[in-house]
Structure formats: structure tokens, C-alpha cells
Design a protein that fits this description.
The chain has 685 residues and is mainly beta. The protein has a domain of 54 residues. The protein is built from four helices and 52 strands. A hairpin with a 4-residue loop joins strand 25 and strand 26. Helix 3 packs antiparallel against helix 4. The protein is elongated, with a radius of gyration of 34 Å.
């Protein structure tokens, strides 16, 4: 459809310094026009009206303007010296047809209105209340309403000012638009959305009653839904979610789910129900059984950039990379026990049950665009370092050349199944991908393996074969090829294999981006089981993993935003869980009974795999803290017991330093322990 210009009209008056902000038409000849200066820093506004070809006088306003439903009354700041709200009525002469906006009254002034700007004015859905948004709070004017010729009592005769907490301010999103406030249907509460929180005030007292964490993104709009018996409000957020809130239940007990402000980039799990997640600004420590956020670790007070983090299996130490530094944290004391400069860390891998850590860093990775322009890609050098934990002592270090491919993440080095060799992705003389093999004992170079026999141009990842210590799989976009690092020969290629593998090394997964999920037999490369048939669902990113016990397969589809869990034995789907936000990280628990998820909203979720055919899962669920009403009391008792043991150790050390004689020291220690036990018998229960 094409639109043809019919005619052009000009509004009377001086319009050189004005731009049209809004126009509202009642008919082709009846309309209202609001002008503004064109700059958000200039508060000037102008209201003009036209009825049947007759134009009204131009009324000047500043910063905020609102009109009732019938467009017969306007509320705005007409005084340039302060933000006092004035009321104008629309008057039309029936004989001459002349129209004008006439000043009727000025509303009661609110606190500090000579300095605090009004950012927005709105009327409620019944035109009873005028709701204003100021810089540090909100203002409500109640005009009352008439029912059966009787005036209903007002909330207040003057202006009711509702201040925000210290440090929280309203901002202008567009001219005459800012954060909104609404009043409940019973006129007892006012609710406003600022940033990502909901603020609730008690109107009779004017006091802030509650603050709710409503969204994980900024609230864009808030609208009342108080029709009939409904006493609700609707909020929409930049996190692409819309929520409906019941004000009648807004003061009920809230069970807060811990989360971080930034998205979770990676997850590391221990064997003692502890986990760490990587966010851009810090390392977050979680307790996986209860979902509690225990600590946020950051060595720099401001400007920290965290890229990797791993927790040892016993949960005692955390190894992280932060702003070009290698850090070892004591999880209990939350203190850094070792620190060293190591810029450009791309990989952190724990070895020997967490007593050693392998790091791979590329110091000049930020200069790769300059090097690529100069055709000197071989100058990108990766440094592999093996350290002891927690001392941080360097056991060995070696370097190897690499190339970085745009759009492809860093290709991580792997350890063979017998922990004898470290296999890396390096380059040959022609700057093509090949494999480098180094000794895991002293870091000595062993051999270099070319990939000509398997016809792989770009390596995506390396996967050590768990059942053959001398075999490593090279994963590309089309296939996976198994290489023997001792004979330097290509053994076989498995088409469509994506790198997921079972603990026995017999089966893998194929999950194309267009849809479908199959299990492959890795010896012959044939499909042995089909979990999801090939269905054209569009091109989406998918993530699929085996659980640690290989009994289940978890499959994430970014289009559906669901996690589907299949039983490996009979391919039956036993769960289909829809996520609240986009998935960024996924790991299986060490026992294979749960999967741990990290999402863009900063939440870490632990989902138990409840298989109907497994009776022990019912017992597992019953033992969770969320199923135990006395869990908090037990947790407090456990903390008291730990504190008591720490006090005993402190007293023991003090007694040893006080008495140099070993025999006397043991006697004093025994007497001291017995005295403490008698004084605090409850803590030993």
C-alpha cells in the first residue's frame, strides 16, 4: 500500500524552535498537539489545540504534562522557577467557537519542589489521582470521587510524597517518561518499579514497607490491573519477561532464590556439594544441595575481569584467573594464598585430585589482529604451566605455537587417560593445525603428529579416549578422527560425532543444529539409538552431554529453551524442563543424579533426575534440605559444632606454646578439653 501526500498544514504561532512530540486526533479537524524543544536537556513544552479550524492559545509547560480521559483538563508544571503543578481547563465558546486553556488552580506543593524535577505526570484509570515521578521519589495528589452525591474521603488534603531509599533515583527514559507508580484498588498501597525492584509504600503512613527483587533486568513499564475484584499490577522488563503481581499477597513470606547480577559463563563442581561459577566480575561459590550463594571472590575491588575458575574435588581450594593474574584461594577463609602474574590464561585444568593444576596462557592474544595483518600468525605462542596446589610452585613449563581462528574458541589441551602425556593443538611449518605431544612428567617434547591422513583442516576440540591411553580423538565440524599418539597414525574416522563420549569410550552423541539426537557406536560409526528423530526445527544452538554415570543424556535446545533428559538404556524421555532464561553452562553432578545449569540471569539451578524406575531417587529427594523443615536448625547446630572444634584447636595450640614440656603439654591439653566439654555440653550433641 502506498501513501500519497494530500495536503500540509501549519499550526499558528512561532514554530521555528519547536518540534512535534505527540499528536492526538479526535477527528480530522479536532486534535491536540504537544511540542518540545528537541533536546532532552531542555524542559520546555507547549500545548496547542484545534477544534473545527479554531486554534487555542499556546500554553507553556515544563518537564511534565498529563491530561484526563476526556481531554478537558490538563496538569503540568507552568512555572519555570519551581515544579508546582497547575491545573488548566479546556473552555469552548459555543457561539463563537473560540477555544482556550484557562488556569483553574495550583495543586498543593510537594516537598523540595523548587529543586527536585518532576519527570512524569500520569492520572490513574479513574482520573481520581495524579501520580508524579520526581528525581528522588514519587508524589500523589488525591482529588477524591463522588458516589451518590457524597464526597469520598481523600488520602490526604495535600501532596503525598513517597521518597525512595538513599542512593536510588528515577531517571528520564524519554521526554515526559520515567518510572511509573500505581495505587492498589483498596487505596492502601502504592507500588513503583525502579531499576529491577518493586518498591511498596503504605499510603496511610507514607512509609516504605517492602522492596521486592522483581526482575533480573531493568523494569521498562508498570501498569495497574485493578478491574473488578482484581488487585494486580503488570511489569515488563528488559529481560524480555512480563510478570503479573497480586498486591493482596505481596506481603506474604518470600523464598528468595540466590543469584548473581551477571550471567554465568562456566561451572566447576567438587565432590563435597560445592560449586563455583565464573562471572565477568568475580568467582561465586555455591552450596549445591541447598542452592545457597556462599561467597563472591574477587581480588580486585574494582574492575576485576574473571575468565576461568576451578574448585578442587575436596572443595578446599579454588584456582582462578583474574585480570592477568593466577590466583589460588582458600575457600574456607576466602583469602588468596598464592598470586602470580600470568596474562592471557585460556585454560585451567586440575590434575591428581586437585593437587596439581595445568594452565595454558597466550600472553599476546590481544595482538592477534595486528599479527594476522602482518601475516605473522606463528608468533602467537601458548605457554603451558604445571603448578602444585596450593603452593603454586612451577613444576615445569613449555611453549608451543598456535593460531587463533576468528569465531572459534581456544582449543584446549588434554591429558591422556593414563596421565602420561599432554596433547595440544599446534601448527606446522605451513601454519596448519597438527598435534603436539609432551611428557606430563617433565614437560619434554615427545612428537608432532600431522593430520594429513584424516583430512582435517580445522580442529574444533580434542577428546582423550578413556579406554585407550595412547589414543586421542580430533573433533572437526564434520567428523571425529581417532589418532594414535605413539604410532602417529590415523586409526579411524567417525562421521557426525560431536565429541561427547561415555566413560567406557564405546558410544558418542550426534546432535545437529537442525534437530535430532542420536547415539553413535564409536568403533564402526553407526547409529545404534535414536533419542530425537530428525525434524526440521530451524537452525539453533544445541548442547548435549552424558551424565557422569552414563545412564542419561541431557539435551538443550536454544529455540525451545528446554532441557530434555533421556534414559540411555531405552531412549525414553523422562524429563522436559523449560528454563527461565538462556542456558550458558551445564555440568553433570559427580554422582550423575543431577545436572547443574548456569543461565544469563545469574541463577545456578540444580535439577535432580527423578527416574520412575529408580526407587533410590525418592530417598535422595527426601534427604535434600528443601524437604526438611528443620534444616535451618540443623545447619545452625552444625555451624556451632564447627566453631566449637575450631575453639578446641585454638586452645590446644595455645597450651602447646605455653608449656615447652611435651608430657606436661599433653596433660594440660587433656584437662583443657575436658573442661571445655563440661562447660559446653550441648555443642557435642
Amino acid at each position: 500500500m502506498r501513501g500519497n501526500l494530500v495536503d500540509t498544514f501549519d499550526v499558528p504561532g512561532e514554530n521555528e524552535d519547536w518540534e512535534i512530540l505527540t499528536m492526538e486526533f479526535f477527528s480530522p479537524t479536532d486534535y491536540n498537539v504537544v511540542f518540545w524543544s528537541g533536546s532532552i536537556n531542555d524542559m520546555r513544552l507547549r500545548l496547542d489545540s484545534c477544534r473545527g479550524g479554531n486554534y487555542s492559545n499556546s500554553e507553556r509547560f515544563y518537564s511534565a504534562l498529563a491530561m484526563n480521559k476526556h481531554r478537558s483538563r490538563a496538569y503540568g508544571c507552568a512555572n519555570e522557577d519551581n515544579f508546582e503543578v497547575s491545573v488548566f481547563d479546556f473552555v469552548e465558546d459555543e457561539e463563537s467557537g473560540a477555544i482556550s486553556w484557562n488556569l483553574v488552580e495550583s495543586l498543593p506543593r510537594f516537598e523540595n519542589d523548587d529543586k527536585e524535577m518532576l519527570l512524569q505526570l500520569r492520572l490513574d484509570q479513574h482520573d481520581r489521582m495524579l501520580l508524579g515521578t520526581a528525581g528522588k521519589g514519587f508524589v500523589i495528589w488525591d482529588f477524591g470521587s463522588k458516589l451518590k452525591d457524597e464526597t469520598e474521603s481523600r488520602l490526604t488534603e495535600g501532596a503525598l510524597y513517597l521518597p525512595l531509599p538513599h542512593g536510588v533515583r528515577n531517571i528520564t527514559t524519554r521526554i515526559m517518561q520515567s518510572n511509573s507508580i500505581m495505587v492498589s484498588s483498596r487505596l492502601d498501597y502504592a507500588v513503583a518499579g525502579v531499576r529491577k525492584n518493586l518498591y511498596v509504600w503504605c499510603l496511610p503512613s507514607g512509609q516504605l514497607a517492602k522492596v521486592l527483587d522483581a526482575h533480573f533486568g531493568r523494569i521498562i513499564q508498570l501498569e495497574p490491573l485493578t478491574i473488578g475484584n482484581w488487585n494486580n499490577l503488570v511489569t515488563s522488563s528488559i529481560d524480555r519477561s512480563v510478570k503479573v503481581w497480586n498486591i493482596n499477597n505481596i506481603f506474604e513470606k518470600v523464598h528468595v532464590i540466590d543469584r548473581h547480577e551477571l550471567q554465568i559463563d562456566d561451572i566447576s563442581l567438587s565432590e563435597v556439594d560445592m560449586a563455583v561459577t565464573v562471572t565477568r566480575s568475580c568467582v561465586v561459590v555455591w552450596e549445591t544441595r541447598s542452592g545457597r550463594l556462599l561467597a563472591k571472590l574477587s581480588d580486585s575491588a574494582l574492575g576485576a575481569i574473571v575468565t576461568h575458575a576451578e574448585i578442587t574435588p575436596d572443595g578446599r581450594y579454588i584456582i582462578s584467573s583474574e585480570t592477568g593474574k593466577f590466583l589460588v584461594w582458600n575457600r574456607v577463609s576466602e583469602q588468596v594464598v598464592f598470586r602470580d602474574d600470568q596474562p592471557g590464561i585460556q585454560q585451567i585444568t586440575l590434575l591428581d585430585y586437585g593437587y596439581k593444576v595445568l594452565t595454558v596462557s597466550v600472553p599476546n592474544i590481544n595482538q592477534r589482529d595486528i599479527l594476522a595483518a602482518a601475516d605473522e600468525a606463528n608468533r602467537l605462542t601458548a605457554i603451558t604451566t604445571l603448578r602444585s596446589v596450593p603452593e603454586g610452585t612451577i613444576l615445569f613449563r613449555f611453549e608451543f605455537p598456535i593460531r587463533m581462528i576468528t569465531g572459534m574458541p581456544f582449543r584446549k589441551s588434554v591429558m591422556t587417560a593414563d596421565n602420561a602425556y599432554i596433547v595440544v593443538v599446534t601448527v606446522d611449518k605451513l601454519n596448519k593445525d597438527c598435534l603436539g605431544v609432551y611428557s606430563a612428567t617433565n614437560g619434554a617434547f615427545v612428537s608432532k603428529i600431522m593430520l594429513k591422513g584424516c583430512s582435517i583442516k580445522e580442529v574444533f576440540a580434542l577428546v582423550p579416549m578413556p579406554h585407550k591411553a595412547n589414543q586421542v580423538a580430533v573433533i572437526s565440524s564434520e567428523k571425529g578422527s581417532v589418532m594414535d599418539i605413539k604410532t602417529k597414525k590415523h586409526i579411524r574416522s567417525i562421521a557426525k560425532w560431536g565429541g561427547s563420549i561415555t566413560r567406557d569410550g564405546k558410544c558418542g552423541l550426534y546432535a545437529p543444529t537442525r534437530g535430532g539426537l542420536e547415539m553413535l557406536e564409536l568403533r564402526k560409526g553407526t547409529t545404534v539409538k535414536t533419542f530425537i528423530p530428525k525434524v526440521a526445527e530451524g537452525v539453533f544452538s544445541v548442547i548435549c552431554i552424558f551424565t557422569e554415570n552414563d545412564e542419561y543424556v541431557a539435551y538443550y535446545h536454544s529455540g525451545r529453551k528446554t532441557i530434555r533428559v533421556f534414559r540411555t538404556g531405552d531412549t525414553e524421555m523422562i524429563a522436559n524442563y523449560r528454563l527461565q532464561a538462556e542456558l550458558t553452562a551445564i555440568k553433570s553432578s559427580k554422582d550423575g543424579r543431577a545436572i547443574v545449569l548456569g543461565t544469563v540471569d545469574g541463577c545456578m539451578s540444580v535439577l535432580a533426575i527423578v527416574d520412575p524406575k529408580k526407587q533410590e531417587m525418592i530417598e535422595y529427594l527426601n534427604e535434600l534440605p528443601s524437604r526438611d523443615e528443620n534444616w535451618k536448625a540443623k545447619l545452625a547446630k552444625m555451624k556451632a559444632r564447627v566453631g566449637f572444634k575450631a575453639a578446641i584447636r585454638g586452645a590446644t595450640i595455645s597450651s602447646r606454646y605455653a608449656k615447652p614440656n611435651r608430657g606436661e603439654d599433653e596433660d594440660v591439653e587433656g584437662e583443657l578439653l575436658s573442661e571445655i566439654t563440661e562447660v559446653v555440653p550441648v555443642a557435642m550433641d
